[in-house]
Amino acid sequence: MGLKTWKNVVKFPHLASLVLLALVAVAIHLTRNKGNDAVQLENQVLLKEDSSKNYSAPGCNLFSGRWVYDNVSYPLYKERQCSFMEYDFACEISGRQDLKYQNWRWQPHLCDLPSNPPRAASYCSNKVNRTHGRHWIDADILVFDSFTWWMDPIMTILWGSFESPDAIYKKVDMKLRRYEIALSTWSDWLEIHINRTKTKLFFMSLSPYPLGMEHGHSCHNKREPILDERYWASAANRSMMRIVESTIEKLEERGLKVEYLNITQLSGYREDAHPSIFRTFWGTLTNEEIKNNVERYADCMHWCLPGVPDVWNQILYASIMKS
Fold it and tell me: Which residues form the Trichome birefringence-like N-terminal domain (predicted)?
């Protein structure tokens, strides 16, 4: 699925528009108990301790590893039995017949991911995202990510207030500069509002997707992960990642710790795990029309479930428990 050109309005230096358009945030309010189960009650998550502490050992890098085929313990759950499943990501229900993409397990080189993370640790990102930062201030954990929105070639930026007659609109094509401004605004908000003794902060790196689909580079019919550990996905923009890393380093220098979850390369290996044409189409397209124009209709940005996002959750869970 190619990138669309959206007519965005971004407002600086206020955080509100940044949140609306480009920054996904997950807020978690933790409640610990002595039981073994993990359950979600509205915005509260009960986390259980994992018996394996392998992932907390010194030298354990959860992001350096390889994908291992495992049809014994994977998938972690059945697509048709998941009550939270959205049809856009339910590739099996949407007609995908090669299901090996569900059986690949991420194996770090020097340690293991948690063997049985709590299945109910699902997060209320949409609800929090739509009602803004007032829900974030007292959270135990905040997880941020921001990437795809900034890939549009031109954005319209509003300098000032929507209500002000003196507001100035400017079209900006400096992708890296506007991303840098956005993250600077984000970091300023964190410094002012976050309780440094309570809230644990995470930033998830970009989720890559294949570029050049109009030239035949598509995720369609990809059935195996890329096993060459030197591979780097074409859409994994290193310059944008460096901006994130630099922003996080500056925050740490000012006494605010943000843990960077670098899931980019491990996700980039999985060109086989995108929905492609096995997803919901909300128009009147026929199967014949879709198959005759796969490059246009294949979704190579999102992910099938069960799949790669489950590994992100395992890594997040391990990082939370380590802290």
Answer: 59-112
Cα Rg of the chain, angstroms:
20
Under DSSP, is residue 247 helix (H, G, I), strand (E, B) or coil?
A: helix
pLDDT for the residue numbered 162: 66
Q: In 3D, which of 165, 138, 136, 171 has the Cα closest to residue 153? A: 171
pLDDT, averaged per 10 consecutive residues of the chain (323 residues), comes to: 33 36 59 42 45 70 96 91 84 93 95 71 47 72 80 68 73 76 90 91 88 62 93 85 96 96 95 91 78 83 94 93 82
What's the CA gap between 320 and 311, in Å, rounded?
Answer: 14
Cα angle vertex 3, ends 174, 88, to 5°?
A: 135
Helices marked H in the chain: 15-21, 125-131, 175-193, 238-253, 264-268, 287-291, 294-297, 308-322
Dump the DSSP string for 49-83: PPS--GGGSTT--TTSEEEEE-TTT-SSS-GGG-T
Is residue 190 within 8 A of residue 203, CB to CB? The reply is no
Provide the sign of the torsion angle of the four alpha carbons 269, 292, 6, 172, taken in this order.
positive
Q: At how many degrees (to 10) do helices 238-253 and 175-193 cross?
A: 30
Q: Which long-range contacts (CB under 8 A, 24 or more apart) does 21-24 make?
A: 21/149, 22/146, 22/149, 22/150, 22/182, 23/144, 23/145, 23/146, 23/182, 23/186, 24/125, 24/129, 24/144, 24/145, 24/146
Does this model's pTM top 0.85?
no
Determine the residue type at 63.
Answer: F
How high is the pLDDT of residue 212?
46
Q: How many CB atoms lie within 10 A of CB 311?
A: 24
The pLDDT value given to residue 269: 95
For residue 200, give Cα distances in angstroms to 61, 204, 323: 19, 13, 8
Instruction: For Cα atoms 219, 295, 215, give the angle at the middle one, nearest 5 degrees.
Output: 90
